Amino acid sequence: MKSKRLKRKTGRFRKTGRFRKTRGRQIGGAAELPWAVVQYDNRPINPIFYPLLERIKNYCKLHTYEYIFSNAPYDLPPYWIKVKLVQEILQTKKYKGVLWLDMDATIHDMKRSLNSFVRQEKSFYCAGDTPNWNSRFNAGVWFVLSNHQGRQIMNSWMNLYDSGKWTKETDGSWKTIGEWAGDTYEQGSFVQTILPRFNTHIEVLPWQVLQSFIPLPQSFTLHFAGPEKSAWIQSYFT
Ligand SMILES: [Mn+2]
Fold first, then answer.
1. Angle at CA 50, nearest 5°, toward 49 and 53?
2. Which spans in the chain are helix H?
3. Which one of 10, 40, 65, 169 has the fewest CB atoms closer than 10 angstroms to its CB?
4. In degrees, to the nearest 5, what angle opens at C-alpha 181 toward C-alphas 175 and 182?
5. Mean pLDDT score of the chain, rounded to an integer?
6. 148: CA distance to ligand 1 center in Å?
7. pLDDT digits (tens, 9 = 90+) for 48-83
């Protein structure tokens, strides 16, 4: 039905060009904004990640989502750049929402749309660690809707960044007085403050859906987090 209407419109208005720009976005009434899939790296990309990127880009093509890769400089610890970047992208209001993927993550279930996860009242979707670790939230893969609630979650999260607890070394690396992944980090602060504060608007999916490093029947994304990532990536692609 979709393609039929599209064809008819194309034929009718082909010569004027007047309707061509909006064609395809207007079908079925209200315009639907695309999702953005976002990644960041300010270092040269490690070649072991190339096949992961390839899958992500193909996924975006398949679903007509926008793929955004940023390497823009930020005067922030790398852990917090993702929060800032997604906050900024939501503020453009050009997207339905944003899927954040670490460089060591990829899409496994190419057919599953982001819309298929969206439930009433829930604006932020994430999962906890695999049983190898123990955080209730893993910051490597998550997605957020571009609505009031989603923007509020991102703003509150970014506000938890405490520049007084971080120092930039002369070699450009960042050090914190806090413990690894603790509350000075984006992950620990989310667990400590954002999860309880926005509890009703956050959907915590099973780790198997977003965080597994071996494809499982429920896996949508995979996250090859850990010291053995290159072996895991290799076994996924062979
Ligand atoms: Mn990661």
1. 90
2. 2-13, 50-63, 78-91, 148-159, 186-189, 195-197, 207-210, 229-236
3. 169
4. 90
5. 90
6. 27
7. 999 999 999 999 999 999 999 999 999 999 999 999
The answer to whether the CB of 174 falls within 8 A of the CB of 168 is yes
pLDDT tens by residue, 120-138: 999 999 999 999 899 999 9
Six-digit token string for 42: 């300010």
| CB-CB contact of 181 with 135 (8 Å) | yes
Which amino acid is it at 197? R
**Residue 14: how many CA atoms within 13 Å on its side-chain side?**
6
Residue type, 59: Y
Q: Which domains does the chain carry?
A: 4-236 (3.90.550.10)
Report how far ligand 1's centroid is from the alpha carbon of 71 (Å): 16
What protein residues have CB closer than 5 angstroms to ion ligand 1? 102, 104, 140, 225
Calculate how far, in angstroms, residue 140's C-alpha sits from the geometric centre of ligand 1: 5
- Using the structure block, give the residue that is written with the tokens 């339905």: 96
Is pTM beyond 0.85? Reply is yes
Residue 181 pLDDT level (bands cut at 50, 70, 90): confident
